[in-house]
Every structure is written in structure tokens, then in C-alpha cells.
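>> received
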Amino acid sequence: MWRSVAAWSLLVLVLACVAQQTGITFRATSNLVIVNVFVRDRAGKEIAGLSKDDFTILEDGKPQRIAIFEYQRLESAPLTPAAPALPSRKPASAQAFSLPAPGKVQYPDRRLLVLFFDHSSMPPADQVRAHEAALKFVREQMQPADLVAIMSFSSQLTVEQDFTDDRDALERVIRSFRTGEASELAVEAETDEETAEDTGAAFTADESEFNIFNTDRKLAALQTAARMLAPLPEKKALIYFSSGLGRTGVENDSQLRSAINAAVRANVSFYPVDARGLIATIAGGDASRASPRGSSIFSGQAQRQQMARLHSQQETLVALAEDTGGKAFLDANDLTLGIRQAQNDIRSYYILGYYPSNQAQDGRFRRIEVRLNRPLQARLDYRRGYFAPKEFAKYTESDKEQQLQEALALGDPITDLPLALEVNYFRLARDRYFVPVSVKIPGAEIALARRGSGESTELDFIGQVRDVKGQLVATVRDAIRVRLRPEDVAQLARRNFQYDTGFTLPPGEYRLKFLARENQSGRIGTFETPFRVPDLSSAGDRLRVSSLVLASQREPLEAAVGAATRNRKLLASSPLVEANQKLVPSVTRVFRRDQNLYVYLEVYDPAVDPAERQPSVLGELAFYRGKMRALHSPPVRLSEAARGRPGVLPVRFQAELKDLAPGRYVCQVSLVDQLGKRFAFVRAPMVVLP
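>> returned
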């Protein structure tokens, strides 16, 4: 087993956590608990005229003193239809919501609606339908009590418009959206070669990891939106325009629960609107994609998987709605009905606030019960509880260790601290492979503490590798202190931390579970993924190659951030280090057009010319979009073996991405051993954003 190689770096990646893009920081200012209570009679009509003395609030069975009491009276009369707003240039985005002082109701007697356009989950036609539905609602169906805000998500989360009843301003924002923006991320990538579309290629990449990451981004955007709205004590409805959200693996389930929990705590109800409208599925797919390859179209497998994918996408929308008190609007062409549903659900209600008598910060669930002190036949709707905060600073060393062990034992991932990882493999000997692991944490999620002239944080890392029998075969554990200069702190919200380590393993099937804990707040994140180390000695007549690494940055080893002692001998022997420069793998494989792409892999045991004592391998880098080859390099002859590693030929390419249009691509490296008469090609999916 290799000891870990700890190397911290600040990376500029295009898809850093969406929370950092909003320009707003959330800090707990008090332990005030807000409860929105809807009081209705048997006919469903609101009961008005109640006072603070008419209510009793109990937390875990103990009465609480009501410190805040407000009645929100919402009018239902429609406004006069507005004339279309004059076109104008794109308005400046609000970047953040206007927030009230703690415990103060900022928008009395107003209904708060958020129109959230997830452009990354809608193809152009669905974007048009969503925009037209929003325009119709704003022009014809807004009511005097309505205040509407607009948010959008493509490569980042943006507050386009703060809450307002100015219909002209809202219409100008909606009309300013560019149709087709981020639509290249809307299509769920193929994970089954048998049902993938037939593009004429001999190989179909398994893009399960991309699907997991892509869905997590969208769910994380909803989670961040809920957190942004949390300081507003009023009830909020977020209308989520999307073309469905597919789920892949338990990682997406965990992020889904995180988004739902954030919404429940923030008094936000999700109202997903399926922008596809009434869906008529065509067996085998429509003309927008090629026919499935293989025999799946004849066996019915393609049709079954097509329906399963549709149901999965809509099931996620239903889960978002039902678990937050909203409703999903599916299979209907008049999308404004979905907005009207949210409008009708938020009618007059009472806002009750109290400071809990139980001040223990133990992280336990506190049950809330609201009672009426008057003999009324009424139904009360309100949230039934919340999780108390827990102060990590008061943990003993034993408590901290127990927290780590409990997190490792959980079957489900923990997403309080978001992280993602990349696993690769490189051959060291015929029966041993080096498996580098790169872990990425968004910088905006890291809490810092002031120490001297700079700031710092401490993080714990634990990695466990198990074989197919569940036996533990390799572990790594590190405690890292990261010190930042003032200029680094200022850029932290836009950057990521990356931790690199590695294992030495024989060929086989494995499962890696990685845990990270930030020791200022005690937040934990876990990530679990299967991976395979192939036995290249059984490759037959094929050219033996390593995994393919894509990166957007090389950095000096001295640029690593942190005070951990690094084993430079092990670090220097990593295949990703050359001339004191470390190649930083892209965990997400998402790049911007203004970046350079670095490509690295290795060829093993190429044939050697006896006279020149050198191999001769031709290599070519190409980018495919569907069937079309969008960009390629001229063939390059590779002949220089790796120093101190006989039988290893490194392959390096560098490409500018400015000539690629935004979209999803397959990066392919083609290799031909001219002397050994063998070939190989290695592929990896990637995304290019503007």
C-alpha cells in the first residue's frame, strides 16, 4: 500500500459549486424558529382574525413563548392584463435577494413566487415553452398579492430579478434569455452500449459518471436557491422549469435529499413544471437521435429503457414536490397551470416565531406541534419539526473520531460538504498498478479561521478500498492544515481545493469510499464509486495503454497549499509529475473554451527498433460530436520512453479549446504501434462550455 501523497492546490474550474456564484454569504444570527401555519375550515377556506393568544406552540412537548406573530392576508383578484413590454438589452442581474433583519417580515401580505429556469436541463424547444408560459403568467395571471423573482441556472446560478410586482421588469428579464443556452447539458448521456444510438462508431463510452455529476449540479442549484431564500420568514414557492431529472446511483439520491432538506428548513415548496408538456413516446426514439444499436430495438429492451428513463426523470420532479409540500405539473401543454397551482396553494397564513427553550446544540430532530386555543373545527398545515444545530467546537477527540467512523459506516453518501473524485490507473509492474485519486471540494464550502496575518482551515481525509468480497485492501488517512494568504482568501469563493493521493493495487474490481471533514464547522462529505484495474498482461494482440487523464492545468509542486509534510519521493514518482510540474486531473471533465486541454496516458511494452533502440508509435488526438469529427491534431510520432521506467512510453497532447463550439464531446486518442503492428484508441466524454 502506498502512503498518501498530500498535495493541495487552488484550481480555477468552470463548474465550481453554484453557491459561490451568488455573491451572498449566509451566517446564523440567532436560533429563531419560524413556522408558517395555514388555518382552514372544513371547506378549505382560510380562517382569519386569529391572534397570538389563539395559538400554542410546543417543541418536543414543551410549550414555547411566541415571539413573532404576523398574519399574511393575500388578495386573489387578478390584475389587469399588461401590454407587452418593449424589448431592451439584458438587464443587470440582482446577484442576491434583499434580506430582512432577523425575525422581521419584509413583504407583509404578499405571495412570494420564484420562477426558476434550469436551462441546463431543457433543450431549445422546451426553453421556448417555459419562457412563453412565464410571459403569459406575468402579463395575464399575476395577482395584486404576488411578488415574483426570477432565477436561472446554466453554468452558474444567477438571481436575474429580485422580488417585484413590476411586470414590465419581469417581462424584460424573461425576454432577455438566449434560447439554447446550456441546452447541450440537457440530454441524458448513454450508459448502456446495447441501447445507445448507432453513430457508426465501434465504441460507446459509458457516461454514468457524467450523468451523476450533471444531475448533482442541478439538484445542488436548487439546494443553494433554497438556502438563499431561507432568511425570508414568509412562505415561498419555487416554480422549477425543467425537462426532467434523471437519477443515476445513490449519489444522486443523496443530493436529492439534501436539496429537499434545505427547502424544508427554508420554508420553500418546490413546484416542478415539466417543460416537455404532454409527452408521446415513440418506440425507439424520434428523429432527433439515431436508432439504437444492436438488437435492443427488436427485443423491446430499447423501449423499456426509454420508458424507464422517462419515469425516472419525472419521479425526481415528483419527489422534489411532494417532500417539500408542493405539486409537480406533468404531461400538460399549458405550463401556466403549474404556476397557478403554486399561486393557489399559498393563500392567507399566519407566521409564528419563537426562540426555543432548549438551547442544546445537539443536532437532534425537534418535533413541533401547533394547537388552537379556541374550539374551532379547523385544519392546521405547518412543518412538523427541524434539526437543531450542533456546535462542532465542543466535540471531544473521542466525539470527532466517532463521527468519522459513523460516517464511514453509513450506506448512503453524506453531502454536507460536497466533493467529487477522479480515479485513474498506471502500470508499475506486470502485477502492480498505481491508482491516483484526485478529490475536489468547492472553495466556497470551506470555513476559515483567522490565524496571524492569514487564515487557515484543517481537513481530515479517509479513503478505503475494498475488493469484490468486501475485504479492506488499502486505506489512506490524512489531516491537512491549509494556510491562505489574504489574496488567496479573496478568491476562495471562485476556486476549488484539490487533494491528491494514491494506492498501489493488483488488477481487479474494487470499490472506493472517500470521506472529507472540514474541522472548523464539522461538515462531512463522502463519495463512493466502483472502479476497475484491468490486467493488461491479458490484452492479447491489442496495444496496452493506461487510463486517459484530461486536465486544464499544470502547476509547480511548490504551488500546493497546506502545511502537511509531503513525501516528495513518492510524489516525484507519480506519472502525473514531470520536471517538478504536476498535472491536475479534471474531476468533472468540464472545460471552458478559453482553457487549454492537457491529455496524458501511457503505452506499455511497445515494440522497439533493434537498430535505433526506440519505439515508434503514431498518436492522434480528436474530438467527436456525435458522428462528426469536430477537431483533430496531425499524427505525431512518439519514441521517447519514460525515464527510469523501461517499457513505458508517455503520450502527451495539448489542445486549445477555442475552436470547439459549446457542447458534449468524446475525446479520443488513437495510437498505432508501427513496429509491433498493434493499435489502440482510448476515449473519454467531456463537456465544453462558453
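>> The longest helix spans residues 208-229.
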